Amino acid sequence: MKKRLIKNEIGVSELVHGMGHPDCGALCSFEGCVRNHHQGRRVQKLIYQAYPKMAELELLRIQEEVQKEWPGIYVRVRHRIGELQVGDVAVVVLVWAPHRYEGFRACEAVIDRIKARVPIWKKEFYEDGTTDWVACHHQGNHCERE
Amino acid sequence: MRVKVLYFGALGEDLGRSGEDCEIENGSTTQDLLQNLAHKNQDFVSWQNRLLVAVNCEHVCESDRVLAENDEVALMPPLSGG
Questions:
Q1: Which of A56, B12, B23, B24 has minimal CB crowding within 10 Å?
Q2: What are phi and psi of A49, to 5 degrees?
Q3: Nearest-Cα residue of chain A relative to residue B55
Q4: ipTM of the assembly?
Q5: Cβ A143–B79 below 8 Å, yes or no?
Q6: Do B82 and A119 touch (CB under 8 A)?
């Protein structure tokens, strides 16, 4: 199974140019980056921890669900784990679509579902020397869809 | 029966371990497992009602999901990926 969780820098250019979809007129993308602040605190770096085999399965499930919900689109997702610095790209979502309408909608759906369902946790390290595990307030929707 | 329990994020940090094997009665549910863990470990008590649960890599929403021998149960704090 192709790895969607990776430790090294995400090669967006390789992901984009490695795919040929002449039936698509739109490529919509989302890149989530490490921000230098969170709730008023200055972030120095962070660490992503995952439940790897479930995270891989959920990323694949989300990709396949969204491709099915918007026929004609192609989805690619990569999420980094391990230590990241401010400015590093943590997650990439690419959606090729016949038209931009479904491309934008599908791209948003993918990242929303990643946040709600993929077992990944973020621990932030602050400039004042403290650390904290972040709790995402967008998660929990996986139960509503059952 | 024995199930494998995994701890992640702040939960694993609080408990000081990433998982353990747990002996529970046949027919136990996920709720029974959580109560069992809270009974054995005071550090787990505050987490009992704040966790997401996955069994064999699938999210489980119902608290009365019956577990089976060798199930892998992931106890997960609120997610923060993406």
A1: B23
A2: -115, 145
A3: A54
A4: 0.94
A5: no
A6: no
Q: Average pLDDT, whole number, for chain B?
A: 94
Kindly tell me if the per-residue pLDDT of A138 is higher than 60.
no
Rounded CA gap, B69 and A16, in Å?
A: 44
User: Identity (one letter) of the amino acid at A98?
Assistant: P
Phi, psi of A16 (to 5 degrees): -70, -50
What pLDDT is recorded for position A137? 53
Q: Which of B81, B45, B55, B73 is nearest to A135 (CA)?
A: B81
Cα–Cα dist A102/A27, whole Å: 10
Closest residue of B to A48, CA-based? B81
Both tokens assigned to A46: 């962070």
Nearest in space to A143 (alpha carbons), one of B65, B70, B40: B65
Quote the CA–CA distance of A20 and B32 in Å, as a whole number: 51
